[in-house]
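agent> Task received from the user: take the single chain below, predict its 3D structure, and emit structure tokens. No templates, no multimer pairing.
agent> Plan: (1) validate residues, (2) run structure prediction, (3) serialize to tokens, (4) report one or two observations.
agent> Step 1 OK, no nonstandard residues flagged.
tool_call: predict_structure(input=
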Amino acid sequence: MMVLRSPYPHFDSQELWIIATVWLALLGVIAKEVVGHSTIAFIGSYNFTWAEPALAAAIGAVVTSLASRPPRSNLASVAAIIFGALSVFGFLRGLLLDPFQSFFSLRGSGVFAATFLLVAFVPSSPRLVSATSRAVGIAAAVLCLLVLLRLIFGISLFFQISPDPFIGFNDGERPLSAPGALTIGAAATLLLSRALRVAGRGMSRSLLMFLLALICLVLSGQRTAIVAGMAGILIVLTLEAGPERQLRFLAGLCVVIGLTSAGWALSVAGADLTSLTSVLPDAVARALERGEGNLNTRQLVWSALVEDIPHWSTVDQLVGLPAGTRPAILIAAKRAYWEHSMHSMYFGAIPMVGFAGLFAWLASTAWIASKGIALAIKSRSPMGVSPAVAAALSIMLAIFAYSYELRDAHGVFLMLAAGGIYCARLSPRSVKASERHRNELNR
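)
tool_result: status=success, residues=443
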């Protein structure tokens, strides 16, 4: 008789719920990238998607965490609790107005809110952090393979949807959407960190996988995800402990100064997109022109939202609209109301959790990034994810959030970054004692 063994035999119930949440959130990202939608199956007329099991696991992780330990008292944890409480409050308000729309709004924001809340409860467990980073790496490997297959056999490979008649697959015949490309960027930072911290075959293998992830990130064609990923890679290259750290720091500083100087020089020279595209290859020029069109549309949406906010009640401005309620965003140039994503967390969080929730997310992200940078500069010996990676992940999300709302697995990245910070502040002796205590409880 075959006996199935758990791949995580020494994990306690809280860790198992968290790792189940991680895998389900990442599987949802992979499935949407492969087939182009999130549907698992239709149960009668109900569209059962990957969001439901991921949200159920995340809620289970939150409930188990509440029963296992009190929340942490740092700024990131307090801010995550505020964000989660505002999400629940908005959902309850929405149930009173339109239960159907309130429930379905959880597909867009519920998984992120629940996984973000886990920042306040994630244990200082190097093995959990390592398991989470391994899951991100496996998900990214699948997405890298998908990128290569689509570039070889055609962009439409595996898609179960029809392309947009105007912009094609993924807004410009691109092999991945932005969330999928960001997952590859997150894995690239993890791989580069490992390559800088280990020696021998481990370093060579990690470096080779990093280069593959970097190539696939660029081939994805998702500009925002590429910029965010490159920023994360630059942070790890600059701050990660290991050989030639001072030289790497100086090289990273030179890159930042060079890019800043180039941007300043172009702005002073009055260079516009037309003059730039005239000297660039056609493919690059078309991508830049398409990007400028997207940005112009998003700026119209953001401006319309800003015009609508003063018409909200004070409560709505502070804590957000009831779940399932959309702001009245009138695009005057198109004489139509905008019914799609806000395409920015900095604006999209306001209808969802209000200005209080927006500031809570920003405060948590800033705390994780600043702690990661401070611990990386102190060269704390990392156990699991290094503090440099924690800083990189949080800054990557802050950059990515300029053009996209944070959903699904994005909360996993914040939780992973927070877990790396907590583990970096442990001593090796305390880690061994904690692991022994957990193992005794599981017997």
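agent> Step 4: summary for the user.
The longest helix spans residues 345-377.
agent> Done.
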